[in-house]
Design brief:
0% strand; mainly alpha
């Protein structure tokens, strides 16, 4: 499977749909709508470099940590303590710089409302 990308709105929508699906299946008592797809979309892309296996490793290990620590929700601080594969960790700095500079964004553009 090819990694997800954020080069255009199609890629951003696919990434968001994936995160929404994972969010629905996540069993944490303090999870909330948008926790992954809105609040952590860019962070999760940077950490996984868009690779599904890396993302799922981060989600699984993060959920275990959230339960063990009693936080029962995902935050960037909690997930920063979770190590995943070396390739994803290696790509992290460059992707974060692109996100911080605005050259890359995780959220798709919102459709303009039609005037009645």
């Amino acid at each position: 499977m090819h990694p997800f990308h954020l080069r255009d709105d199609t890629g951003r929508r696919q990434w968001r749909r994936m995160l929404l699906a994972i969010e629905q299946m996540l069993v944490l008592t303090d999870k909330y709508p948008g926790m992954l797809a809105d609040d952590l979309a860019g962070y999760l892309f940077v950490r996984s470099s868009g690779h599904l296996a890396s993302l799922m490793s981060l989600i699984n290990r993060g959920a275990q940590r959230a339960v063990r620590t009693g936080t029962e929700r995902f935050t960037a601080d909690l997930l920063d303590g979770v190590r995943i594969d070396e390739a994803a960790e290696h790509a992290r700095a460059a992707l974060q710089a692109s996100l911080d500079s605005g050259r890359l964004r995780a959220a798709p553009r919102r459709a303009a409302k039609a005037n009645p």
